[in-house]
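Table S2 (continued). Query chain:
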Amino acid sequence: MISSLLSTQLDAQSINYTYVRNDPFDIRNFSASIDALWGEVNAHNGYAFGWGARAEYMMGKTLLFNFDSRFGFGTNLYRESNGNTANYFAMEGGVGLIFVNKAHVRNVPIVLSTQRVGNYQYTTYIRGGVPAKVRTIVALRGGWGQYRNTLNFTKFSDSLLTFNDSTYVNAKDKMKIFEYKSDTTKSAPTLSIDQYGTINIGYLYGGLNFRTIRNLLIDVEGYGYRGNILYSDFYIDVMFAPIFNLKDFSVLDARGERTYKVGYKEISRFGWRIGWFWRKPKEQGFSWKFEFGSRPGFKSMANSSLPVNVRNLYCMMTAGLYIPLKIKPIYTED
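Corresponding output:
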């Protein structure tokens, strides 16, 4: 079934409207959010999902603060009974220094009505938009974060992954590290152990944050209240990881406990990410966050033609119910 979108444009001169609100400085500068569900697709263990908490605060006209935490309750390959694996956990906090904070007037789109008839959706909006004050904020930001997750060794079975300084393939075949016996008798069956471990990353990040605030509400004759309301962030960060650790792999069987030092010969301590965040300037509601990037960690093999190692890539999206508050100091337009 194909659904078509049709639009109708009305000239601003042909309709009457009055401004009810048009002040992007009339905001609540703090929000705290409980994320009932977030989800992430990554190359370390495939996927994870869970709950989280976020907060952001704009102090006056000079500083931004942010906090973000995510806790997994659906971490792929994680087993509480397997001490080699770990439940997903991520947390970070940072501060931003604002160097652009101004408003300018430009036309923004206003949707008057939307109606669906059969397979067609009709949208009526004001041609050319409505003049509105748009606030633009640009900040230099930075902070610290940590990340922990289960790692699937079979997805990293190259010559750079080592167990006790032996390559993964040789260690797996010769050391029999993923095999165990319930007793020491020769007739005891050989059982297999999941080839999963844990990755830990501690990182610094720095980049640019671009915030846009629109707080327009108009009363349109014949249509009622219509608006263009937005409080959004777009950010670009570079990450540097002074801490990168693969947890040592342990096996406990009838022969006792064996521990193997896990390492990776070529580490890339730099990563990058881009992200978006949405909420409303004043009203309580749902906020959304989307993030895509490449974490610090595994360097590409020398024979790879790709500029990044796909094993570091991830994509995350989260949604939560937020409560906005006005906390002094708050900046109003000069």
